[in-house]
Design a protein that fits this description.
By secondary structure, the chain is of the alpha+beta class. It is built from three helices and 17 strands. Strands 10, 12, 13, 15, 16 and 17 form a six-stranded mixed beta sheet that branches. A four-stranded antiparallel beta sheet has the order 1-3-6-5, with no helix packed on it. A hairpin with a 7-residue loop joins strand 15 and strand 16. The structure holds 2-acetamido-2-deoxy-beta-D-glucopyranose (6 copies). This is Intercellular adhesion molecule 2.
Length: 276
């Protein structure tokens, strides 16, 4: 046994030296991706290349759909079109050169922009002094930890919230009180900050919503106005009716007089003169 160990040790050392030696002269593998942050279902180009002059095999490993676009005649590089990414993933380029395989990987972040930002006011109209709730929701945003929802009144920030986890929906709520009778203009901004992943900021803003604010006395005034208008209407209708009835009455009396007058007129002139 010891003799075998003594003989195998130099072999192991030799093997180690050999491998280190070839390691120094080892070829390189490169991965180039048109994008590091991609929108879900987008497609983009990836180029796998090597410093090896005559690689045996090489390619791209991914769970996504891929299609080779172009290839170097000696196989020193291969360009692919990668598509259909639905979640974060790793791309791996590999080449085999002189019986040795090497690979290089790259992380790809998949995002889904905040497409639909909805703002809701509950209730949509209040009386001065009443509380109301502003609620903003956005659907299917990725990555959620890059999302910030900001509630705005005009240009003023009321509240902002950054999210975590894997839910598909993000909601922010804010309770407030209407202090003056001025209508309030609210909106909600969704911001997806992809800078930590090598991307940019994507912003989406909801349609603005107006909170109608009423003065509490306005309701009493409304009641008074309604009562007064009803009274005036009643008086008007009554007077019209009275006028009509009285008019009819007067008309009948007048017609009666005319009857006598007409009969008088119908009498021959001689009679009338005699009667006079
Ligand atoms: C792929 O990358 C290699 C090395 O950088 C480059 O020489 C080659 O032109 C690239 N291929 C394409 C199609 O861009
Ligand atoms: C993309 O992925 C979906 C499911 O994730 C699949 O149904 C569809 O066939 C894929 N499309 C392509 C072009 O691979
Ligand atoms: C790629 O992502 C994995 C986790 O999925 C992480 O451990 C690794 O450090 C990342 N690599 C780079 C180059 O960011
Ligand atoms: C509410 O504010 C938004 C932007 O802040 C503006 O575009 C919109 O015209 C405003 N609406 C009203 C009714 O003032
Ligand atoms: C969120 O609000 C804080 C102050 O409350 C502010 O410092 C921060 O910049 C805001 N973030 C965003 C993304 O607007
Ligand atoms: C807002 O008010 C409602 C009741 O009107 C309450 O259930 C909710 O917890 C409040 N939210 C906040 C953030 O204060």
């Amino acid at each position: 046994m010891p003799s075998f160990a003594c003989r195998s040790l130099p072999i192991t050392l030799l093997a180690l030296l050999c491998c280190l030696g070839s390691g120094e002269k080892a070829f390189e593998v490169y991965i180039w991706s048109e994008k590091h942050v991609v929108e879900a279902w987008e497609s983009w180009k990836v180029n796998c290349s090597t410093s090896c002059d005559n690689p045996k095999v090489g390619g791209l490993e991914t769970t996504m759909s891929k299609m080779m676009l172009e290839e170097h005649p000696q196989g020193k590089w291969k360009q692919f079109l990668v598509s259909n990414a639905s979640h974060d993933m790793k791309l791996i380029c590999h080449f085999t050169c002189a019986e040795q395989q090497r690979s290089e990987d790259l992380n790809i972040t998949v995002f889904q922009p905040p497409a639909q930002v909805t703002l809701r006011l509950q209730p949509p109209r209040v009386i001065v002094g009443e509380t109301f709730t502003i609620e903003c929701t956005t659907l299917a945003v990725k990555p959620l930890e890059s999302l910030t929802l900001t509630l705005l009144r005009g240009r003023e920030t009321l509240q902002n919230q950054t999210f975590e986890g894997t839910e598909l929906e993000a909601t922010v709520r804010f309770n407030s009180t209407a202090l003056t009778k001025d209508d309030l203009n609210f909106s909600c901004q969704a911001e997806l900050d992809l800078r930590p992943h090598g991307g940019y900021i994507i912003r989406s803003i909801s349609e603005s919503q107006i909170l109608e604010v009423f003065e509490p006395i306005q309701d009493n005034q409304m009641v008074i106005i309604i009562v007064v208008v009803s009274l005036l209407l009643f008086l008007f209708v009554t007077s019209v009716l009275l006028c009509f009835i009285l008019g009819q009455h007067w008309h009948r009396r007048r017609t009666g007089t005319y009857g006598v007058l007409a009969a008088w007129r119908r009498l021959p002139r001689a009679f009338r003169q005699r009667a006079m």
